[in-house]
Specification:
The complex is a heterotrimer. In chain B, 26% of the residues lie in helices and 35% in strands. Chain B is an alpha+beta fold. By secondary structure, chain C is mainly α. Chain C is 76% helix and 0% strand. Chain C starts with a helix and ends with a helix. The model of chain C has no long low-confidence stretch (mean pLDDT 80). Classes of the chains: A mainly alpha, B alpha+beta, C mainly alpha. Chains in contact: A-B, A-C. The interface between A and C is large, with 75 and 80 residues.
Chain lengths: 272, 324, 252
């Protein structure tokens, strides 16, 4: 029995190291002068000297602010549009008998199998004609197409958890649709709404494919990082990456209840 | 408020849940709809409340046809089995909600909430969140919310089923007291015949989509019009034996456990089980292939063979009561 | 969502002068379509295999109780919070031939550094490993959900029947996970066919995958989008075939 206990701890340690490792590397590159990172053949695995110079150089100046703001704007828009569409959709689905709602949900989720490249190209063509090419709004719309199914799924689960009796009671108490939303439905679905918003937001923040197809020139942060790297601007790329990632990791840790929990695995058990 | 149900029919898929229900409920009644689980009682309440629309039929309140009014506009209060308290509000706000929705002035709302809280003894928990109070307290909050509006009448969907037995008895008494104080019409739904018998002014037994019998508790107990009702009502179902035992061939006789004389008579049965209630005993007996229950003051025991005579009975043919 | 897809497929068959033709498809063959297809399949299958294996290990670990489990469980979802681009950048640093950390580690053990991009197979391996890092967590979560649903009694019964931990895994855990493995395969499999940012940053256009090929054609032959659409259509076909395959095997 002792041996298997030890095995568990070894495995746990190994896996943890494995998952944290690349992040550690990134930090090494971002926070050390290049003579310890990019130049030697076998860069040291332990930090030799820490510096903020890379970060400072990369972050000052418009080269960072513009893409950063673009990412923020796009992500916020995506979150809001996703909510605007997913809330009514999720509510409607939650009130349908499961005979009907289940196939609709499956259908919606199926739209996510479309490769970004295959949709992106015709959309790019259309956008150019419609003047939406290279715009935050256009990109946000395209990304919303991808986030909508998951957001709808989450909200459908959230609304299903609110008993129908509660709405009926509100009706009898004299509340019209607006009041029912305001006093009963929305307050009791706030966590789910927040989760759907954040997940959509995070997806947009991370998104690359549509960004590079629909906004190749002055783009969001992910595409900017890519162009930096291909141009050989490695340090800038690394610095941006760190700044880019830290808020998201914090958010991810915060959201882990939703990522692991009720909405997704509950839906999975239903599907399985 | 008199409520008239005219030919209410409701189908779910291919099942007819309510089949042409026509009934008048008088002002101030405590009208109980009694029936086994799933018989459609809740559906009937929802139709009256406006949450469900009937496939056909009309609902007329005090002469006005409200069938096409949405629930918000019907002046009805309803208490659900689950209480449906708003979890995001405290007790006070829950009770105040219906008044707020109808734009009552603030001081009026305050006055009424306090008044109702006193009536139901919940003043001390007014500012607690509804998820933190006990089941019994939740039930009273639900009631308070219904009463505060001074509605035309009340609909209650098994509001006591979630309480334990002790609380249920207490709540029953309180409900009756409130009914008498408010003097309003109550339409109450339950599957518990004991509850119905103890609270109702009239009971309507819902079976197979229709009101199989409507009458006072006493009427239902002493003269059930069908065998089904006879066996549904009463702590012990009415006994049924072939008419021969009282000399009436071709009929069935129905008699309550107390309508017999035990210890003498030419009928005999064997006791297989007992229920002792104070100084009385309910004897569960085998009579031929049937099982019957007799009430006795004598200390009979399991295994005894008991003689009895039926002193009072109703006659039934094909499951229906035959008038003498 | 479906509308642009139809347009894409349609236009892959239509020449600028409006006639239907397989011209674009034949053109693809000349720029290495066959290779791209093979590479895409290799990456998809390889990535799924690696992720499935790793995720099984991780999920199995997480079903046990041990000190610090909460911490491990949180650390485990770290990759989910790292943007794909960032992961790609990081791994491109790690797998640098000179100045890469992977080789540093090898050096630590006294080995010589390898050229990670020496040939196509190695390059694809780099993509598979990086992708596995990012996506194993979500597969692990799905499998974990499935594992926690397996009643403990089945394990006890197997143990009493004399099955050791390895056999219990194969005879109890795996069969009961079939549905969840299928779900994970479907979700991730489709995403694997679609990987784009990772290979673009790590290996560029050589060796080609269907996605990167599509993009390369798009940027080089714009505004003539025919060839790129053709490549994309082929990708779509593969995805659909994959789905059908999985659903068939699952016996729905």
């Amino acid at each position: 029995m002792r041996a298997s206990r030890a095995l568990i701890y070894v495995a746990a340690g190994l896996l943890s190291a494995l998952f944290l490792f690349p992040l550690y590397m990134l930090i090494l590159i971002a926070f050390q002068p290049p003579k310890y990172t990019l130049i030697p053949t076998y860069p040291p695995l332990v930090p030799k000297e820490l510096t903020l110079a890379n970060l400072v150089a990369a972050l000052s100046g418009t080269a960072f602010i513009d893409p950063f703001l673009k990412s923020v704007e796009t992500a916020t828009l995506v979150g809001l549009i996703s909510l605007a569409l997913a809330i009514p959709a999720g509510y409607g689905l939650s009130r349908l008998p499961s005979r009907l709602s289940y196939p609709v949900l499956v259908l919606i989720l199926l739209t996510n199998i479309m490769p970004g490249v295959i949709i992106g190209i015709p959309i790019a063509v259309q956008f150019i004609r419609a003047g939406l090419y290279e715009t935050v709004v256009g990109l946000a719309l395209a990304q919303t197409l991808v986030t909508l199914p998951l957001a709808t799924l989450i909200l459908q689960g959230t609304f299903s958890a609110i008993p129908r009796d509660l709405e009926h009671q509100a009706m009898i108490d004299g509340a019209n649709l607006f009041n029912r939303l305001r006093y009963v439905l929305l307050p009791n679905s706030a966590p789910g709404i927040a989760a759907a918003y954040l997940i959509s937001w995070m997806f947009s923040w991370d998104e690359f494919t549509y960004a590079i197809l629909l906004m190749p020139y002055h783009s969001t942060l992910p595409v900017t990082i890519y162009t930096d790297i291909t141009r050989g601007n490695l340090l800038a790329g690394a610095a941006f990456s760190v700044v880019f990632t830290v808020p998201v990791i914090i958010l991810t840790y915060g959201l882990q209840r939703y990522l692991k929990g009720q909405y997704i695995s509950g839906g999975l058990k239903g599907a399985a | 408020m008199t409520i008239e149900l005219v030919n209410i029919t409701k189908r779910y898929g291919s099942t007819v849940v309510l089949n042409g229900i026509t009934q008048k409920i008088e002002d101030g009644e405590f009208f109980v709809v009694l029936g086994p689980s799933g018989a459609g009682k809740s559906t009937l309440l929802k139709v009256i409340a406006g949450i469900e629309r009937p496939d056909s039929g009309k609902i007329i309140v005090d002469g006005k046809d409200i069938t096409n009014l949405p629930p918000e506009k019907r002046n009805i209060a309803m208490v659900f089995q689950s209480y449906a308290l708003y979890p995001n509000m405290n007790v006070h706000d829950n009770i105040a909600f219906p008044l707020k929705m109808r734009h009552y002035p603030k001081d009026e709302i305050e006055r009424r909430v306090q008044q109702v809280a006193k009536l139901l003894n919940i003043t001390d928990i007014l500012y607690k969140n509804v998820t933190q109070i006990s089941g019994g307290q939740q039930q009273r909050v639900a009631l308070a919310r219904a009463i505060v509006r001074d509605p035309a009448f009340f609909l209650l969907d098994e509001p006591l089923s979630n309480l334990d037995a002790r609380m249920r008895a207490i709540a029953r008494g309180e409900l009756k007291r409130i009914h008498m104080e408010l003097k309003k019409t109550f339409v109450y739904v339950t599957h518990d015949q004991k509850e119905a018998m103890s609270m109702a002014t009239r009971i309507a037994v819902l079976h197979n989509g229709v009101f199989e019998q409507v009458g006072t508790p006493l009427e239902l107990y002493e003269r059930p019009t069908t065998k089904w009702v006879a066996q549904f009502i009463g702590d012990h179902p009415m006994n049924f034996l072939p008419g021969e035992v009282v000399g009436k061939e071709g009929f069935e006789v129905g008699f309550r456990p107390e309508w017999v004389e035990v210890g003498r008579g030419n009928l005999k049965c064997q006791v297989y089980s007992l229920e002792v209630v104070g100084e009385l005993r309910y004897l569960m007996c085998d009579y031929g292939e049937s099982s019957i229950v007799l009430l006795s003051r004598e200390p009979y025991n399991v295994g005894d063979t008991v003689a009895f005579e039926v002193t009072r009975y109703n006659l039934y043919r094909d499951g229906r009561l035959v008038e003498r | 969502m479906v509308y642009p897809a139809f347009r894409a497929v349609y236009f892959s068959f239509v020449l600028p002068n409006g006639r239907f033709s397989l011209y674009y498809y034949r053109f693809l063959e000349s720029v290495g379509l066959g290779k791209a297809v093979v590479d895409t399949i290799i990456v998809t299958v390889g990535a799924l295999a690696v992720q499935l294996a790793l995720a099984l290990a991780v999920a199995s670990l997480l079903t046990k109780e041990f000190k610090g489990k909460r911490a491990v469980s949180t650390i485990m979802i770290t990759p989910m919070g790292v943007a794909t681009v960032v992961a790609a950048v990081t791994f491109s640093f790690i797998f640098e031939v000179t100045g890469g950390y992977a080789n540093s580690i090898l050096h630590l053990f006294g080995l010589r550094g390898i050229n990670w991009y020496a040939n196509d197979a190695m390059s694809l391996l780099v993509v598979i490993l990086s992708d596995a890092w990012k996506n194993t967590p979500i597969v692990a979560l799905i499998l974990l959900a499935g594992m926690t649903a397996i009643p403990q009694d089945l394990y006890y019964a197997a143990a009493v029947d004399g099955a050791g931990p390895i056999r219990r895994f194969f005879y109890v855990t795996l069969p009961n996970l079939r549905e969840f493995i299928a779900i994970a395969l479907i979700i991730r499999g489709v995403q694997e066919f679609n990987i784009f940012a990772l290979p673009l940053i790590l290996i560029g256009y050589h060796p080609p995958l269907l996605t990167t090929l599509t993009y390369e054609l798009y940027t080089t032959s714009f505004p003539a989008v025919g060839p790129s659409l053709a490549a994309a259509t082929i990708l779509l076909v593969f995805i659909l075939a994959f789905l059908v395959l999985i659903l068939r095997v699952r016996g729905r």
